[in-house]
Amino acid sequence: MRAHLGDQLVIESPTTGAARRDGEIVGLHHQDGTPPYDVRWSDTDEITLVFPGPDAHIRHLEQGQATSTPKAPPGTSEAETMTTAAHPTGPADAGDIGRRVGVERRRRGLSREETARRARMSPDYLAYLEERPADPTLATLIRLADALGTTVAALRGGGIDLPPGQGHALLHPRLRDLSPEECRTLLSTHGVGRIAVSDSDGRPAVVPVNYEVVDDTIAFRTVPDSVPAAAAEREVAFEVDHVDEALSQGWSVLAVGPASVVTDPEAVRRLTQQAHTTPWAGGEREMWVSIRPTTLTGRRITPADQ
Questions:
Q1: Interatomic CA distance for residues 259 and 64, integer angstroms
Q2: What is the pLDDT of residues 200-246, one digit of tens each?
Q3: Contact between 133 and 95 (Cβ < 8 Å)
Q4: Quick one: which of 1, 126, 19, 138 has its CA closest to 67?
Q5: Taking the chain, what is the end-to-end CA distance rounded to the nearest angstrom?
Q6: How deeply is 19 buried, as exposed, middle or buried, from its count of CB atoms within 10 A (0-12, 13-18, 19+)?
Q7: Over the stretch 110-147, which tens digit does the pLDDT of each residue have?
Q8: Which 3 state secondary structure label does DSSP give 119?
Q9: How far apart are CA 237 and CA 280, in angstroms?
Q10: Quick one: which of 10, 4, 26 has its CA closest to 142?
Q11: Backbone angles phi, psi at 101, to 5 degrees
Q12: Taking Cα atoms as reference points, which of 41, 20, 28 lies closest to residue 1?
């Protein structure tokens, strides 16, 4: 058995062959990749020294041919820029990795300096990685993932076509109700949420929309005769959530209340000017629908000791 940093160790049931535990290999004790390994388990986020038995196998993160070594950006070391045959960059676009790093860093409220310190790298290199196409080594990505509390696969966009929440549940989860104030904080100013409506044929439908929060009102843009537009003049449910795959925890917020079309020209102009993003679906979407929640509830899953 041989492994590289970032590979996955999978423990299977000897009777069914189904995976019963898995984790990311974050430390090697032999240069040739033979056991034992330091493994960060997906169900507990704990790192332990593992001597794999006959019920274990390695799921390699990357396979393929070596790529060329990119030119070193300012402030980087040789270790941060060298690409090896054992760990090619794979299909991920270099610029996409940097954008994901930047988004995750800002989401956790970390400065570049603090993130670079945690990842043991130059702040100049982190700035280069976030702002320009770069080709970080797997070792660099592992350090960044650890600093940001996420996984290498998440930074590389490996799960972009998979539904969230495929990791193992926490061993001792805690499900806690959120106060209305906490729900408002999690809704924040904008994002992507899901609206539950009945379409023109009376069938239930749930569709994602880019939304804005203005005062105590949730607003989104759409086009007439669309499914989201069917929310107008009805009581609807609007849901926002986030799942932290690395820690197997997350939260959800549900807002319920009447929806209406925004018709006042000044209100439409203000919403359009203050919108943080344009609708990801594209096209001319100039019909604003607002939801004024009458109830705001939410729940959060965390480890029992938090």
A1: 52
A2: 777 899 999 999 999 889 999 999 989 999 999 999 999 999 988 76
A3: yes
A4: 138
A5: 37
A6: middle
A7: 999 999 999 888 888 888 888 887 778 788 888 898 89
A8: helix
A9: 21
A10: 26
A11: -60, -45
A12: 28
